[in-house]
Amino acid sequence: MLSIQNQIVLITGASSGIGAACAKVFANAGAKLILAARRLERLQELADEVSKNFTTDIHLVQLDVRDRTAVESAISTLPPSWSEIDILINNAGLSRGLDKLHEGDFQDWEEMIDTNIKGLLYLTRYVVPGMVKRDRGHVVNIGSIAGHQTYPSGNVYCGTKAAVRAISEGLKQDLLGTPIRVSSVDPGMVETEFSDVRFHGDSDRANKVYQGVKPLTPDDVADVVFFCVTRPSHVNINEVVLMPVDQASATLVNRRN
Description:
InterPro entries: NAD(P)-bd_dom_sf, SDR_fam
Keywords: Oxidoreductase
Strand content: 5-15%
GO molecular function, one term: oxidoreductase activity, acting on the CH-OH group of donors, NAD or NADP as acceptor
Organism: Brasilonema sennae CENA114
Low-confidence stretches: none
Family: Belongs to the short-chain dehydrogenases/reductases (SDR) family.
Number of helices: 8
C-alpha cells in the first residue's frame, strides 16, 4: 500500500457528505488537508472535528467552484507550504430538480452544469499543471451511476455525470507518459444531503428516496477513494462503480416496505 503520509490532498465540496468523509479517512492516514467549500462555517466545524480526532494540518478555502476567477485565485495564492498538491479529489457536485427535460428549470440546469462539469474542469486545469511539473499526483473525480445509465427525469444531471466520465477518460489519455494517475469513483445511492439539495430542501420527499433501502454511506465511498490512491504507483484504478446491495441499476431498487 502506498503511504500518503504528509501528502497534500485538496478536497472540493468538503463541508458535508462524501467530501467530509474523505477528509476524515485521509486525516487518519496522516495526509495534510486543503478543504474547500462554499460554507466556511461548515468547513470550520469539520476542521475542528478532524483536529480533535487526528493529528494533521488543515488549510481551509472558502470557494465556489463555479467561479473560475475564484478557483484560479485560490490555487495561485496557496501558501508555499500548501501549494504542491499531491491528490485532487473533485467531489463538489449536485443535482437540482427531477423534471422532464421539456419542463426543466433553466436555473437548475445552469447550476448543475457549472458545478459538476465546469467546476471540475477549472480545478483540474489549475492543479494538474503543477502535478505534471513535479512529476507526481493523482486526480480522483467523484462521478455517479448516472454517468453510466440515464434514468427518467435525470436528463441534465445524467448528462453532467456522463461528462465527468468522459473527462476522466480524456484526462487519463492526455497524461499518458506521466506518472500522474486518474480515477473516477462512481457510486449509486448514497445517503447524503444530495436528495435534500435535489428537491430544494423538501426533506419529506428526500427521505422517500432511501425508504426501505440500505444505501451506501459517505464513508463507504471514501474508503473506495482511499483504496484508489493507495495502490502501488504503477497501478491506476480507472473507474469504480459501487452500489448498495439493494440497488441493481440506476432504476432497479429493492425496497423492503
